[in-house]
Structure formats: C-alpha cells, structure tokens
Amino acid sequence: MARKKIALVGAGNIGGTLAHLIGLKELGDVVLFDVFAGVAAGKALDIMQSGPVDGFDSKMVGAADYAAIEGADVVIVTAGFPRLPGMTRDDLLTKNAEVITKVAEGIKTYAPNAFVICITNPLDVMVWVLQQKSGLPPEKVVGMAGVLDSARFRLFLAEEFGVSVEDVTAFVLGGHGDTMVPLTRYSTVAGIPVPDLIKMGWSTQEKIDAIVTRTANGGGEIVKLLEKGSAFYAPAASAIAMAESYLKDKKRVLPCAVLLNGQYGMNDFYVGVPVVIGDKGVEKIVEVQFTEAEKAAFDKSCDAVKKLIEDFKKLGV
Ligand code: LMR
C-alpha cells in the first residue's frame, strides 16, 4: 500500500507535535510547511532523527513553497497567530483571516483531494473561510474543536469521579468559543449518564456545573498558564484522532466543526456537532435531541459564530 502523505501547514508548537505523533503512530510521511523555511526544515529533520530511537520510518521534510504539499492525502492547518492572555479567540479574526485565505489558495492548487482539518482560531469561522476559499467539498473540510473540548471535559469528569479517562465519554457541541455547550446529559461514566450519577450521590450538580464552566474556559486556562501562546499537545492529539479515523476508515463518532446545511435547523456555517469520520470524510452528521435549555445554549453558540462570519465579511479579505 502506498504511504500516505500528510501536509502540516504551520510548523509551530502544534505542527511539531502533530509531526511527532504522525511518526509515532506511523500514519504516513510528513511535509511540514511554514513561511519560516528553516524552522520547518529543522523541526522535520529533528523529528525524523527520533525515528531510529522510536522505531518509525516516516519521511519528514520542511518546505516554504506550497508546491511541496502537492497530492497530500491529509492537510492539517495550524498556520496563524495564537492568542495571548487577556485575548479571546475572536480577537484573532483579522490577523488569521488573511493567513487562512492564503492557505486555502495553496490547498486548492496543490491538494484539492485532501481531507483538511483546521485548527486555527477563531476555529469555526476559519474553517468556514478555508472551505469557501478552497472550494473543496464540505465533507472534506472540518474543524478540530469538539474533540479537544470533549477531551478536557472527559479529563475533568474522570478526576471528579475518580475513574479512568478511558471509561468517560463526553460531548461538547457548538462553537469553539466562550459559548460552547458541554452536554452533561450525553456524558457518561461506563455508559451511565452524568445526571444519573448525580442522583446516585457520586457527585453534586454544583461540582458538575463548575466542571462545565472549567471546560468552556479550558483553552483560556492554558493560555494564562503558558503566558506566551496556547495549548498544543491536546489540540494535536485531537486532530490526529480525526486524521486517523479518515486514513483508516475507522468511522469514529467525533464532535467536529462541520458545514451545516439544514441539520440542526442551521444553514451555511460551521459549528461543532457529532459526526462519523471515515474514508469519505464526514460520512454522517449526527443530530442529537436537545432539551429546551440545551437548544437555547446551542442556538446562542451558533449566533456567536454567525456574528463572527458577518465580521469576517466586513473585512473584505
Ligand atoms: C484551545 O482551546 O486550547 C485553543 O483553541 C487555543 C486557545 O486559544 O484557547
């Protein structure tokens, strides 16, 4: 079987971590693209040199020319600026809109058949721009957010219940911003929904509410601690789970930002919902049933994304 080609656009902390994980999981060969050619080439060579120790043969090259991503099977986009303490993700709109527009042109020209995963913030708008400007089919352009937000939710719930993260499932839907919607009703320990666990006396509503708030602020908590940038290990791991499901046709059910066209009563914008990812990309959008309160929270989150798309349109990029 031919080795897969994975292009990483952006050779910062997330790009380097992605390349390392791709090597460790033997998912394919890597092109690490960055406008800073030396950084891309240096990181690619450094990670490839860990291969003999870790036992992987992935070829890794750096590049500053989009031609190098030609024919990529998967493209993961991390290019752009991270936020700093005191900023919201939305504050990155103006700076990152231009970056993503250029990336979209590069993908359109050189990797039109790729499965594209966007990580750049503000996520839901940037992935929408990437799809619009590249013209790739919507089922092949997705945003990484829900997997990351749900991973944070799972970790905090596992700590609260004193159980393995492996036995905790959780869903966070909506936009990847302050209005995201962690759904406790759809979160479980070994299949037992969190509200039932509260009834069983295993936790309290107050403690779960605090975990929901901590999850929604999860990115900001890391930004504050790091002082000079944002999270990269968990975002990279989350994007790799999505890429792996595509490359291996695993058909995992993962919360991702996808283009809604009628689903959830929404149209023509990206927001996080559960989807099935297989070798055709997004193969199914799962429409979960909401309570009135959940629906109101989801609508509020969608409204925040819609407003940001309007702000993007005013930029005239
Ligand atoms: C995250 O959630 O970690 C990322 O969106 C980065 C950020 O700015 O919070």
Textual characterization of the structure:
Helix 1 packs parallel to helix 2, helix 1 crosses helix 10 and helix 4 (93-110) runs parallel beside helix 5. This protein is an alpha/beta fold and 317 residues long. It is globular and about 55 Å long. The longest helix has 24 residues, at 292-315. Helix content is 44%, strand content 22%. The protein has helices at residues 13-24, 37-48, 51-54, 93-110, 123-134, 146-161, 194-199, 205-216, 218-226, 233-247, 292-315, and strands spanning 5-9, 29-33, 60-63, 74-77, 115-118, 141-143, 168-173, 181-189, 192-193, 252-261, 267-278, 281-285. The protein folds into two domains: 5-144, NAD(P)-binding Rossmann-like Domain (Rossmann fold, 3-Layer(aba) Sandwich), CATH 3.40.50; 146-315, Alpha-Beta Complex (L-2-Hydroxyisocaproate Dehydrogenase, Chain A, domain 2), CATH 3.90.110. The chain has eleven helices and twelve strands. Strand 8 (181-189) and strand 9 form a beta hairpin. A six-stranded parallel beta sheet has the order 3-2-1-4-5-6. The structure holds (2S)-2-hydroxybutanedioic acid. Residues 82-83, 89, 121, 148, 176, 218-220, 222-223, 230-231, 235 line the site of (2S)-2-hydroxybutanedioic acid.
